[in-house]
Amino acid sequence: MTSDAQSGLPRRREPDLADLAAFTVDAAGMLTAWPEAAARLFGLPAREAAGRDVCEVLLTSPGQRELVQHALTEVAAGRVWSATVAGGQLGDGRFAVRCEPLTAAVTGNGDGSPAATVRGGDGGAMVIVRRAWPQPAPTWLAEAAVRIGGTLDLGQTASEVVEIAVPAFADAAVLYAVEHLLTADEAYSPRSRQGMAVRRLASRLDDESSAAAASLMPPGEVIVFDPGTPAFQAMATGQPVLFGQLDDRSAERFEQRPGGSQTIGRYTSFLAMPLIARGTVVGCLLFARTTVSPPFGPGELTHAGELASRAGVCIDNARLYHRERRTALALQQGLLSRAPDVPPGIEIAHHYVPVGSNIVGGDWCDVIALAEGRTVIIVGDAMGHGPEAAAAMAQLRTAAHALADLALPPRLLLRGLDRLVASVTTAHFATSICAVLEPSRDPSASGRSFLASRAGHPPPVLLVPGRPAQVLDLPPGLPLGLGETSFEETRFALPPGAVLAIYTDGLVESRARPIDDGMADLCHALESALATPEAALDAVCASVVERLSKHGEDDITLVLVRAIH
User: Fold this and answer.
1) Is the CATH number of domain 137-326 3.30.450.40?
2) Which residue of 34, 120, 349, 484 is most buried, as measured by CB atoms within 10 A?
3) For the chain, counts of helices (H) and of strands (E)
4) CATH number listed for the domain at residues 2-107+117-133
5) Is the bond preceding residue 465 a cis peptide, omega within 30 degrees?
6) What is the maximum alpha-carbon separation in the chain?
7) Does residue 7 register a pLDDT over 60?
8) Class for domain 336-563, per CATH?
9) What is the pTM of this model?
10) In what order do the strands lie in the sheet with 81-86?
């Protein structure tokens, strides 16, 4: 593998013709052509190879002789056969072999039409051979350094590891992670009387499709390595373990799956490598080779250890990211609005989109039902985004709930939040808007009204059927935390069918879009989405956010309230 001059990273080596050769055999496996490329690749001149049985020249072990017979049977039937073989006269090398049927006869049609080619029969085979292993260790290990760890996805990282290992180092590879670290995030030290629960993240078999490997060894399956088993020993001691056959429980597990006994019976050499990161065993990497490959030897532990070391750190990085994401998701479930308790006569929908890769941020919205059919709607935006903004938002949201339960008018609720923000070190300032929906004061009239007040927040938008969208003239006020002594409040009518839109500035403002343009876009998007009166409010909310969020650089919250009667 060479280096890219611009990036400095290794790039994949171009195919070397010195590692490639082709020769022919007849239907009985006798060599009929042995070109110079084959002589160079295998170190055997043509005069010593031509006319001899391929099993005497190259594939001398019993397992390889069976492979040759199987290959000749497949070729005689007109099918292509391929496999990876090693050992015998091939020495420590492993070679990818492809056998293609040779033309047995060419028959003319006698009418001038193209001749017909007959495959199979006694035509023998064209054998194409490419050196697959040993690759120079720096080649595949350098590829591992570049390829593994480019993502923080656990499954993809594990797949990258086994794909590097097979076929460059082994015929099969399986990667397991310690279950305790994935779920409870607790370091776990194996003891002599306890097994080790692990989760299989990825597997690869050299001569099987990925679907077949996943069927035999499903990713995500949790198993237990019993004390005394090689994998358990590797994880308990932090040292590699060479062994020649699977333990009884593992073998039984394979036998219970279709084709498992036949597949696992082909492997006769195994290596268990612990995955260690930051002094903690985070998993185990199992390698296996078949009867046609040389068994693992002590001299290969260094290269296996380098791959395992790289894999352990990358798997642990992905695990830590997975943990932080689970934490953030749990936080999100606890902080974001739940299904509101909506009183009869109104319909409410809301949509939230955090900026970038954040899961939670500084936006919040709440719908709080009060007595006598009154409903409080609060939307706020703590400065910033990410965990710091989320922490400030959590405090503001809790306080807003408490103040709303006191049935305070909007101006007094915002004044209480203003004092809180001034005392919260994680929130330098925040904006908010509060609206209290009330049934019509005239029993004979339909519709509702709402009293609203805002603190440095974008103004609400009202859509009344048959009219263009209207940005409501609501005094802006200062953001929370700046010591505003008096927030103004205004009453507006909400007739049947009308929709009130309350949102955060992330929906309408960015560096590429002034807020006035964003407001105009919002009004147009709402008018378009609500052109059909029976449009579902949830769908309208989602479509408006999707349309306007293309320029988003901040968390986005949109709340829609529709008066039904």
Assistant:
1) yes
2) 34
3) 16, 25
4) 3.30.450.20
5) no
6) 111
7) no
8) alpha beta
9) 0.50
10) 31-33, 20-25, 125-133, 94-101, 81-86
